[in-house]
Amino acid sequence: MANDSDLKVNVDLLVDSESRLKSLKKEFTNLGNHTDDMRPYWGSSEITDAMDKFVDNWDDYRAKMLESIDTVGKLVKSTIDSFEGLDADLAKGLREGGKDMKK
Q1: Which domain holds residue 28?
Q2: Tens digits of residue pLDDT in 2-24
Q3: Is 33 left (phi over 0), alpha (psi -120 to 50) or beta?
Q4: Looking at the 3D structure of the chain, how many domains does it have?
Q5: 20 and 54 in contact (C-beta within 8 Å)?
Q6: Looking at the domain assignment, is residue 37 inside a domain?
Q7: d(Cα 61, Cα 65) in Å, to the nearest integer?
Q8: 40-64: string of b/e by CB count within 10 Å (b at 16+)?
Q9: Which of 1, 30, 50, 72 is most buried (CB neighbours < 10 A)?
Q10: Is 13 a domain residue?
């Protein structure tokens, strides 16, 4: 009967995904803004202006990526919690059902 299941969830994959998302979030969060450190190497004001625009755009996109990573991470965590809870409830039901059958 267990082989007739329509839904199969690889919780290990979900846990690994959550861990990787946390690592990505940490990496993107810890990326320092080194604009001021690099400014002396850029040369002309035109290049400096272009690089400032690039850095500003990168910061905006990085913030959006962090939001997306956080959202997906929360969804994965919620999915893990839901399936683990469901699995525990089903196991409890089977144990209690087995006790009723022995009576």
Answers
A1: 9-32+45-102
A2: 566 678 889 999 999 999 999 99
A3: beta
A4: 1
A5: no
A6: no
A7: 6
A8: eeeeeeeebeebeeeeeeeeeeeee
A9: 72
A10: yes
